[in-house]
Design goal:
The chain is 25% helix and 29% strand. With 108 residues, it is α+β, with helices and mostly antiparallel strands. Pfam families: Emfourin.
Amino acid sequence: MIELPPLSQATLVRLSRQGGVAYLPARAAPRDIDLRSCPEDTRREVCQALLQAAPLAAGADEPGGGDQRYFRIEIWFVDEAPAVRFQVPEARAPEPLLRLWKGSPGRP
């Protein structure tokens, strides 16, 4: 489990899927969501997904393990505050996080 800082100061979220037996570059490409320029409803959706994913998190340095895929989440903040990084096993990922991966709000 990871405790997130207030997301009101978050500027960018990068979501990537890693691990598994087969590496498919198109499916592994990270999705960046710029929270500074996205609509407010998209920002709320992204923040809600992060809040639901955080309790399921393993540390960013912990390996995914075997053929398990996992989502790597990175969050950047204003004022060069340290970025937050964590991983969530794909099998345990909450639905809002899966929707972000599939639809990637905030992308042009």
